């Protein structure tokens, strides 16, 4: 997962943000089956830390090179939560009691919208 890469090499990523966001967009965040070795809250926090770390980057050329990929990734989080909310109504009661993907998607939606707002402010100031 790209989380460890960002954590260990944050200051030296530079042009590597685009592939990181591509990998993040292709990562299955909403699966119901989580590994026992990784806590769901920690995994979610790691995923949310990647766009936040990118937005904290002060290098304008690095920001400009990967801003579109960051936006696409954040939109994926928002759109996925909308799709899961629609799907939620068709589930049985036993499925609702499980560790559902809907909770995960909703936990990603609001932070993703906040990051989109911050990104919009940064773009407006450029």
Question: Could you walk me through the main structural features you see in this protein, from its secondary elements to its overall organization?
Answer:
With 126 residues, the chain is mainly α. The chain has a domain at 38-125. 73% of the residues lie in helices and 0% in strands. It is built from six helices and no strands. The protein has helices at 2-9, 17-25, 40-55, 60-88, 93-97, 101-125. α2 runs parallel beside α4 (60-88) and α4 (60-88) packs antiparallel against α6 (101-125). The model is unreliable at 84-99 (pLDDT under 50).
In short:
With 126 residues, the protein is mostly helical. Helix content is 73%, strand content 0%. The chain has a domain at 38-125.
List keywords for this structure.
126 residues; mainly alpha; 0% strand
Mean pLDDT: 75
Q: How big is the Rg?
A: 15 Å
Q: CA-to-CA gap between the ends? A: 31 Å
Number of helices: 6
Helix and strand element order: HHHHHH
Helix content: over 70%
Poorly predicted regions are 84-99
The chain-level structural class is mainly alpha
Percent range for β-strand residues: under 5%
Q: What is the count of β-strands?
A: 0
Sheet of most strands: none
The best one-word shape is globular
How do the helices and strands line up, and which of them pair or pack?
Blueprint: H1 2-9, H2 17-25, H3 40-55, H4 60-88, H5 93-97, H6 101-125
Helix pairs in contact: 1-3, 2-4, 3-6, 4-6
